[in-house]
Amino acid sequence: MGNARARVRGRFEGQIRRIRIQPQAAVPTLEIVLEDGTGRVSALFMGRRGIAGVECGGRLAIYNPVYDLL
Q: Which of 8, 10, 16, 58 has the most neighbouring CB atoms within 10 Å?
């Protein structure tokens, strides 16, 4: 991914670092951020809310954690 160039077709593989669904131009859009250690690529799927075999989750998260400022 470190060698990826704008408007040049490529094939990428790596780990999915983020999945989110958000509207863009009033169209549901699924964004997947893929990373391979040399760079990151965002894949935007317009009009989709999911892809078979790609799921959110599988991580531990703490919501509204208690913290101290020293």
A: 16
